[in-house]
Amino acid sequence: MEINRFSISDLTNLLRKRLKRILCFTLLAGLAGYLLGWCIPKEYRSEASIIPESNEGESFGGASALADMAGISLRSGVDAIGPELYPNVVASKKFLVDMLYTPVQTLDGKVQCDLKTYLCEHSDQPWWSKARLAVIQGIKGVMGAKKSKGSSDKRIDPERMSEEEEALIDGLQHAIECQMNDVSGVIYVSFRCQDPLVTKTVVDTVTHRLQEFITDYRTSKARVDLKHYQEMEQETKATWENTLQAYAEYTDSHKGNNLLQAYESQRDALENEMQLALTAYNKMKQQVQLAEAKVQEKTPAFTVLEVAGVPARHFSPRKSLMAISWMFIAFVGITGWYYVRLLLGKEQ
Fold first, then answer.
1. If DSSP codes are grouped into helix, strand and coil, which group holds residue 173?
2. Are residues 14 and 97 in the same domain?
3. Got the DSSP string for 255-297?
4. Fewer beta carbons under 10 A from the terminal one: N or C of the chain?
5. Is 141 helix (H, G, I), strand (E, B) or coil?
6. Is residue 284 within 8 Å of 233, Cβ to Cβ?
């Protein structure tokens, strides 16, 4: 195949000759993109931002600041799940499955259900998605494919999900966005769907559950210690009460034997046991108080920088942007087409 040589001026002259045709195709492409935007259901987006208290370097005091200046990190190992991994927590299957059972209500108040039911039964789809789904269901019907277990009302098991359930979780994973600013430490949570009130409800729930996860994780060790000391406190208290009762019963039953040496020795022994048990009980009470203070110390504080609101305007689709994009693609495409024809010598 012979390649024709031409200059830029030849291409420019050809485009000028075909200008009406190029403009016609470009405008038709823009109109098609604009009409396509009407076929896509509107989606709303709500966002919230929080900043959790960080405990990095608390075990090193001022030494961590000096180490940072020297380029040495003393903060490794403080948290196995650091703030940079919080977006991964939100994107985990267990977290998303729990989110599917969040109670939601549409802005008009006509639909009150959980998020799973809303996404499956009360969300519109473009006509081409409906057509594709109808074709797939038709093929499965002809082939005699069994219905997926995901159609049942049973709670979704994150470890054993059907294809429909995995598709639902994947869609929810893309709809919920959780990002963290590494510099400021601010966590941004957003969600988009077809109802503005549902978006706000989901963002509030994600934020609340993320705060619960962070709090549970930060205080897990302290709460285990607190539970241990509380159990020890109950045991020492029972021991002290038993020795106290034994001492009281012994003294009451030997009131007439006050001058006997054997009585005094036994009474002193019981009294010593009672005092030792009381001392152990008091120490455990102090340990419980210290453990409670430790739990409070480990509990992070959250600062809500921006609360989620009910969006007034839809987030997508942006019809004008789609029209401009299609016009640009059409213009580049038809220009490239004439370039190739000129290169092959098919245009004069």
1. helix
2. no
3. GGGTT-HHHHHHHHHHHHHHHHHHHHHHHHHHHHHHHHHHHHH
4. N
5. helix
6. yes
84 and 191 in a single domain? The answer is: yes
Same domain, yes or no: 100 and 159? yes
Question: In the block, which residue shows the tokens 């098609």?
Answer: 32
Taking residue 207's Cβ as centre, other Cβ atoms within 10 Å add up to: 21
343 and 270 in a common domain: no
Q: Where are the alpha helices (DSSP H) in the chain?
A: 8-17, 19-39, 63-69, 86-90, 93-99, 115-121, 127-143, 163-175, 196-253, 261-298, 319-343
Alpha-carbon span 282 to 274, nearest angstrom: 12
Does residue 111 share a domain with residue 20? Answer: no
Kindly report the number of other CB atoms within 10 A of residue 194's CB atom: 18
Same domain, 167 and 107: yes
Q: In the chain, how many domains are there?
A: 2
pTM, entire model: 0.71
Instruction: Please report where in the chains the tokens 């190992």 appear, as a residue.
Output: 77
Query: Exposed, middle or buried: residue 261 (CB in 10 Å: 0-12, 13-18, 19+)?
Result: exposed
The DSSP-derived string for 146-158 is: PPPGGGSSSPPBT
In order along its 348 residues, the chain shows pLDDT tens digits of 555 666 677 778 878 888 888 899 999 988 988 888 788 888 899 999 988 876 554 443 444 444 444 444 444 445 556 677 888 889 899 999 999 999 999 998 888 999 999 988 888 877 666 677 677 667 767 766 555 544 456 788 888 888 888 889 998 999 999 988 888 888 999 999 989 999 999 999 999 999 898 888 888 889 999 999 999 999 999 999 999 888 888 887 766 655 566 777 887 888 898 899 999 999 999 999 999 999 988 888 888 888 888 998 888 788 888 889 989 999 898 888 888 877 776 665
| Residue 289 lies in domain | 41-316
